[in-house]
Amino acid sequence: MSLTYCALFGLDESQRKARLSMSGLSPGDREALRVLHDSVLPEAAPGLTQAFADQLSAWPASAQPFASEPERAEFGRRSSRFLLELGRVLEDPRWFEERLRDTVGWARAGVSLPAYVCAMGQLQRLALEPVARYAESHSRPGLAQTLMKVFALELSLAGDSYQLVHTDDFRSAVDAMHAKLTADALTGVSTREHLLAMLKLRLHVAEREGGSVCVILADLDFFKRVNDNYGHAGGDAVLRQVADRMRASVREPDVVGRLGGEEFAIVLEGAGLAGAVALAERIRERVASQPCTHAKLDISVTLSQGVAVSTRGESLESLLSRADAALYAAKHGGRDRVVVHEKGRSGGAQATAGRSSPIAMV
Predict the structure, then answer these.
(1) Residue 232 to residue 226: CA distance in whole angstroms
(2) Do domains 4-182 and 192-361 have the same CATH topology?
(3) Whose CA is closest to 152, among 117, 128, 115?
(4) CATH number for the 192-361 domain, one of 3.30.70.270, 3.40.50.800, 1.10.3210.10, 3.30.479.20?
C-alpha cells in the first residue's frame, strides 16, 4: 500500500515517530501490543463489535451520528479491524495510512468530530473489559495502559483528519484523492484495488463472526465486437451503462467494482447463495432486456456471470478462483447466463441461455 494519506497529512517517518511519542507509545509497549494482538482482542473482537453496535443504536435519535443501520454496521466492522490490528502500530506505517483513511471517510460522511470521539471513547471502555479479565493478572495494568495509548493516538489522527477535511485548502485535495483511490475513472464503480481490499476485509470479518461473503464475477459477452462496430467511444458508453445498472441493482452495503476491461465484480456480505444468485440473474436480465445507447444507436449486449460463496477458512485467492471458474463455465456454456461454483461439488453445468434458464452449478 502506498502511503498516500500519510503524504498528504505530512506524516513521514519522523512525524510518525513523533506522534507515537506524543501518545506515550514506545518500544517498551511492543510486548503488550503483541499480547493484545495475539491473546486478548481476537477472541473478544466479535462480541465487542456487537456490543458497540448495540450502544450506537441505543443513543438518542437527536445525538445519533450514524443515521442508518448500514452506517452503524460499517462503523462496527471498521472498529473491529482497528482492534485486530493493534499489534502493527509501532512498526508498520500502513496502520497510520489505514487509520487516516477511515477517519477521513467518516469526516467526509458528515459524522462530527465530537460524535466520533464519544464513539471511540465507548469502544475503548468496551475494549478494556477483556483486558481486565486476562488470565495473567500481573500483566493487566500494562495492557490497559498500552491500549489507552493506542486510543490516544487514534484520536490525534482523527483530529488531523477532521481539521484538514474541513479546511478549504485541503478539502478538494482530499476529495480528489479519495475518488482517485477508490473509483474507476470510466465507470465510477470501485477500482480493482479498492474492491479487493473490501473483499479481504469482509472475508476477515466473516471468518471472525462465522459468516460468509459472496462474490459475483461478470463479463460482457463478445465485447470486442462492440468496440469493432461502434468504436471505443461506443464501448466506453456500454461499460458505463452496464456499471450503472449493476449499481442500481445492489444493496447499499454491497460493493461493485471494475476488475479491468469488460470484467466487473460484486462483493456481497451476508446475502447467502440464494440472494447472490437472485441478484446475478436480475442484473443479467436488466442488461439483456434493455439495449445500451450511443450516438442514438441501440447496442445490445449480454452478460455472463460466475458466483461463489466463501467457506470457513477460505482465502481471497481461492474464492476468486472459484468464481472465475464459474464465469469460465458460463462463457463456454453458451454465455448470457449465471453459473454457481459450489466447493467440493462433482457435478457439471445444467443450464440453457435465456430469461427462463435455470442456474448452472459447477
Answers:
(1) 8
(2) no
(3) 117
(4) 3.30.70.270
Strand ranges across the sheet with 303-309: 255-260, 263-269, 213-220, 303-309, 338-341, 360-361
Distance CA 156, CA 22 (A): 9
DSSP class of residue 37? Answer: I
Give the residue from 287, 312, 299 showing the smallest Cα distance to 216: 287
Tell me which CATH code domain 4-182 carries. Answer: 1.10.490.10
> Is 351 in contact with 359 (CB distance < 8 Å)?
yes
pTM (global) more than 0.70 = no
Give me the residue label for grid cell 460468509.
212
Per-domain residue ranges for the chain?
4-182, 192-361
Instruction: Report how far residue 82's alpha carbon sits from residue 84's, in angstroms, rounded to the nearest whole number.
Output: 6
| Angle value at C-alpha 68, between 66 and 74, nearest 5 degrees | 70
Local structure of residue 38 (DSSP, 8 states)? I
* DSSP three-state, residue 30: helix
The one-digit pLDDT tens for each residue of the chain (362 residues) are 567 788 878 888 899 999 999 999 999 999 999 999 999 998 888 888 888 888 877 777 656 666 666 677 777 788 888 888 888 888 888 889 888 888 888 887 778 888 889 889 999 999 999 999 998 888 899 999 999 999 999 999 998 888 877 666 556 666 666 666 788 989 999 999 889 888 987 887 788 778 899 999 999 999 999 999 999 999 999 999 999 999 999 987 899 999 999 999 999 987 889 999 999 999 999 999 999 999 999 999 999 999 999 999 899 999 999 999 999 999 999 999 999 998 765 443 333 333 434 456 66
Q: Which residue has the cell 500481573?
A: 138
Backbone angles phi, psi at 6, to 5 degrees: -60, -40
